Amino acid sequence: MLSEASNGGEPARPPYDLLIVGGGINGAGIARDAVGRGASVLLVEQHDLASHTSSASTKLIHGGLRYLEYYEFRLVREALIERERLLRIAPHIIWPLSFVLPHSRLVRPAWMLRLGLFLYDHLGGRMTLPRSRGVRLDRDPLGVPLQPAFKRGFVYSDGWVQDSRLVVLNAMDARTRGADIRTRTTLVDARRVDGLWQATLADAAGGTRTVRARALVNAAGPWVGSMLRDRLGIATTKQVRLVKGSHIVVPRQFEGEQAYIFQNPDKRIVFAIPYERQFTLIGTTDLPWTADPGQVEISAEEIRYLCDSVNRYLRSPVSPADVVWSYAGVRPLYDDAARNASAVTRDYVLDVDVAAGAHPADAAPLLSIFGGKITTYRRLAEHALEKLAPFLPILKGSGWTAGRALPGGDLGPGGFDAALARLRKDAPFLSAEESWRLVRNYGSRAWTIIGDARGPADLGESFGGGLTAREVEYLVRQEWAVTAEDILWRRSRLGLHVTDEDVARLDRYLRDRQRDAAPEDRREPCPAGVALAG
Ligand SMILES: Cc1cc2nc3c(=O)[nH]c(=O)nc-3n(C[C@H](O)[C@H](O)[C@H](O)COP(=O)(O)OP(=O)(O)OC[C@H]3O[C@@H](n4cnc5c(N)ncnc54)[C@H](O)[C@@H]3O)c2cc1C
Predict the structure, then answer these.
(1) Against a cut of 0.90, is the pTM above it?
(2) Of 213, 376, 396, 436, whose CB has the highest number of CB atoms within 10 Å?
C-alpha cells in the first residue's frame, strides 16, 4: 500500500524528499543515488520497470563514435569515462564487445575514421579496453562474413549491456537502501501545495492515493513533455523531440564474438551484433515520431532499410523473411532544432522549475530530464542531484555510485570467468549454458536462485530455455516481475528461446501463484496493450 498524505482517515506520513516519476534507467539511477545520500525516495512507474525506451536500445555502453562527427566531445568524453565505471560496477550484465568497422571509400575517407578512432581511444583518459587498430579484412578471420570488396577496416572496443536488467538492478539497490519502488503505479497529476508537491497516484487495481514530496523528478522519458503539460500544468520553453529507432533479430549471421558497424550511403551507421548466442541483432533507424510513445512498432520500410544496410557488406544476404523478432523504441531527445533526426543531440538537458518567489526551502523544485543515454545514466543522476541540492540539502555531497557494485556485480576475484567456474562446481547438475546464463543475468545472486538445490528436480517446474520455478520465484519476489512478458522480455530475453506452449505454461503458473498468494502479496498485471519493446 502506498504511503499517503490524507487517504480516507489513514495517518499521514512525512513527505518524501523525492518523488520520481518513471522507472526507466534515468528514474532508477536517480532513485539509487538519492537514497544512498540519505534522502527518502518514492519512485513510481506506470507499467513494468524498463518497459519503454530503456529496454528498446541497441544495448551498447559506448562513447558513441559517430557523435564525434557532430562535435559532441563533452558527451563522448563523459560516456567513455562512464563505460569504464559501468564495466566495473556491473561486470555480470555489462561486458566488452569488439567492433569491426569495414572501410567504405564511398562514405568516409580512411583518414577520417583513423582520426575519429584516435580521439575515441584518448578522450576518456585511462581505458582498460583494447585500443583501436587497423585490420586487413582480406587476410583476417574477422573479414570472413564480409563481401571480398571490403579489404581493409578497423577494430575498436565498446561495452554491451543487458539494458532492462541494468534498470532493475538500480531499482533493487535503491530498494535495499530504503527507497519505495512502485511499479504499475501512475502519477495522475501533481500540484504545489504549501511548499510541497502533492501528487495523485493510481495503481493497476484502480486504487488512488495522495502523496507529498519536497521535490519532483520528471524522468518520464518520451512522456517528459506531456507530463509537464497535461499532468503538472507547467509551461517550459524546453521541448522533447521523439525519434523512433527499431531493431530486427535474425538467425546468427556470422561466427565469433565480434560485432560489425556498417556505414550507409545516407551517412548513418547500422550495427550487426551477436545476440543471445543463436541470433544477430541489427539496428537501428532514426525516424521522427509524433504518435503515442506507448504504441511504437517497426514498419515494413524500416525492416527493408535494415536488411539493405547489412546486405551492402555481408556475404550472405538477410531478407525480411529471416526476421524472427523485432522491437522499436522512442528516443526522448532534447530538441536542439537540428534538421534531421540522426543529427539531434544525444546529450541530456536537465531543467529545474521552482515555485515563483519562494524561499529555496519551500520552492518545491521540479526537475525534468530531456535526452540522455543508458551509458550516461549514472552521471546524469549525479548532475540531477547537484541541481536539486540547493533546495534539498540532504542531497549535498559527492556522488557515491561510481565505485559500488550493483546487485550481483560483486563477482569476487577472477571476475566473471572465476564466478562461472565456481557455479559449475557448486551446481554440477546445471548445463554449461544454464550456468553461463545465470551468472550473466544475476552475477553473485545466481547462488540465491540455486539455494539449497541438489539436482534439477529441486529447481521446480521448467518453462523452457532453462527457466525454472526457482528463477521465476526469485524474479517475482526480488525483481518486481508480474507477467510472463516481464520475465521473458525484460528480466531475461528468454522469449527468443521458448515456445508458445512454454509461455502458456508460465502464464498459468503466474496466474495460479497470484490466486494462491496472500492478499498483500498480490500484484496487478500490466493492463492489456502495454506489451511493447518485445
Ligand atoms: C533505438 C534506440 C537505441 C538506443 N541505443 C542506445 C545504446 O546503445 N546505448 C545507450 O547508452 N543508449 C541508447 N539509447 C538511449 C537510451 O535507451 C535512452 O536514453 C534511455 O533508455 C532513456 O531512459 P529514460 O529513463 O529517460 O526513459 P524510459 O526508459 O522510457 O523511462 C521512462 C518511464 O517513465 C514512465 N512513465 C511515463 N509517464 C508516467 C506516469 N505518468 N506515471 C508513472 N510512470 C510514467 C514510462 O512508463 C517509462 O517506463 C537508445 C534509444 C533508442 C530508442
Answers:
(1) yes
(2) 376
What is the four-CA torsion angle of 280, 284, 285, 288, rounded to 10 degrees? Answer: 130
**Cα(504) to centroid(ligand 1), Å:** 29
Cβ–Cβ contacts within 10 Å for residue 72, how many?
18
Please count the other Cβ atoms lying within 10 Å of the Cβ belonging to residue 123: 18
Is there a cis peptide before residue 401, judged by omega within 30 degrees of 0?
no
CATH number, domain with residue 229: 3.50.50.60
Domain match, 138 and 246 both: yes
Question: What is the whole-number distance in angstroms between the Cα of residue 370 and the centre of ligand 1?
Answer: 10
In a shared domain, residues 154 and 189:
no
Is the distance from the beta carbon of residue 293 to the nearest atom of ligand 1 less than 6 Å? no
Whether residue 117 lies inside any domain: the answer is: yes
- How many domains does the chain fold into? 3
- pLDDT tens-digit readout, 442-486: 999 999 999 999 999 999 999 999 999 999 999 999 999 999 999
Q: Are residues 323 and 291 in the same domain?
A: yes
Q: For residue range 485-517, list pLDDT tens digits in order.
A: 999 999 999 999 999 999 999 999 999 998 887
Domain that holds residue 327: 93-162+241-334
